[in-house]
């Protein structure tokens, strides 16, 4: 029996004339988000630290007719972040959207986490939010328009063994984003997505991933694995002009996970 589920409509005019900066754009969710923005007419600036994958992602988008550029950027380097954002604004005149998707999620029992590992997780996941927001916000405030979108995690409310430090860093991202929303000014919003375990080449790798995904799906109302496109579609709404009255909010992308 054929499904009569309505088709998702992609409008190439949706983000026409807008400029979006996407972090973690070389692979995974960031790559899919970048492609969906580009498909809807946005000029997309891909940020990542992986030069080879970043150039390949740009090449793929460009072959599909996208308006795209890339910048290699270590988002834990405050000076480099500010220089990169300022250069993007000089080149493209503005930044309408910041979609911050870069992050790390090493799994390790709490007592085995070293101080250096703890600090690295917070540097990549939380300090980067601070650096990026401070860099883009003045440019958005001058134009009285902007969308700041960060990425948290459902581990904030559904703890997972081995991810204590990761969950803490994402809890900090959530609190920071909510507080940011109170300071951004007219025409600018700050929100965050909170995905469940999402299927990407990275998350699918590993000996125990199949069992982990099965457990996650079992606890969801929607009985399928979460995909990068699920996160991407949520971000498209948050980034849209019609979301102007929504700020400081968490967008749960978890398939209706049950909370125990």
UniProtKB/TrEMBL annotation:
Keyword Ion transport: no
Domain of life: Eukaryota
Annotated InterPro entries: NAD(P)-bd_dom_sf, Sc_DH/Rdtase_CS, SDR_DHRS6-like, SDR_fam
Membrane-spanning parts: none
A UniProt-annotated Pfam family: adh_short_C2
Alphabetically ordered keywords of this record: NADP, Oxidoreductase
GO molecular function, a single term: oxidoreductase activity
PANTHER family, per the entry: DIHYDROANTICAPSIN 7-DEHYDROGENASE
Family the UniProt entry places it in: Belongs to the short-chain dehydrogenases/reductases (SDR) family.
Protein name as annotated: 3-oxoacyl-[acyl-carrier protein] reductase
Species of the source: Exophiala bonariae
């Amino acid at each position: 029996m054929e499904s009569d589920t309505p088709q998702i409509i992609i409008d190439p005019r949706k983000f026409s004339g807008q400029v979006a900066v996407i972090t973690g754009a070389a692979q995974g969710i960031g790559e899919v988000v970048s492609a969906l923005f580009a498909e809807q007419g946005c000029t997309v600036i891909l940020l990542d630290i992986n030069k080879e994958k970043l150039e390949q992602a740009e090449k793929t988008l460009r072959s599909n007719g996208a308006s795209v550029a890339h910048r290699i950027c270590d988002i834990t380097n405050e000076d480099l972040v500010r220089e990169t954002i300022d250069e993007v604004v000089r080149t493209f005149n503005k930044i309408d959207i910041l979609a911050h998707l870069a992050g790390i999620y090493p799994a390790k029992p709490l007592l085995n986490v070293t101080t250096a590992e703890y600090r690295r997780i917070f540097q990549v996941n939380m300090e980067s939010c601070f650096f990026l927001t401070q860099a883009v916000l003045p440019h958005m405030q001058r134009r009285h328009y902007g969308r700041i979108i960060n990425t948290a995690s459902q581990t904030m409310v559904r703890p997972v063994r081995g991810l204590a430090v990761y969950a803490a860093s994402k809890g900090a991202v959530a609190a920071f984003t909510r507080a940011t929303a109170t300071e951004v000014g007219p025409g600018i919003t700050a929100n965050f997505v909170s995905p469940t375990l999402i299927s990407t080449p990275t998350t699918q790798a590993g000996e125990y991933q199949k069992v982990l995904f099965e457990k996650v799906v079992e606890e969801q109302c929607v009985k399928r694995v979460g995909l990068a496109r699920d996160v991407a579609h949520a971000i498209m709404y948050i980034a849209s002009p019609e979301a102007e009255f929504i700020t400081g909010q968490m967008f749960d992308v978890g398939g209706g996970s049950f909370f125990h």
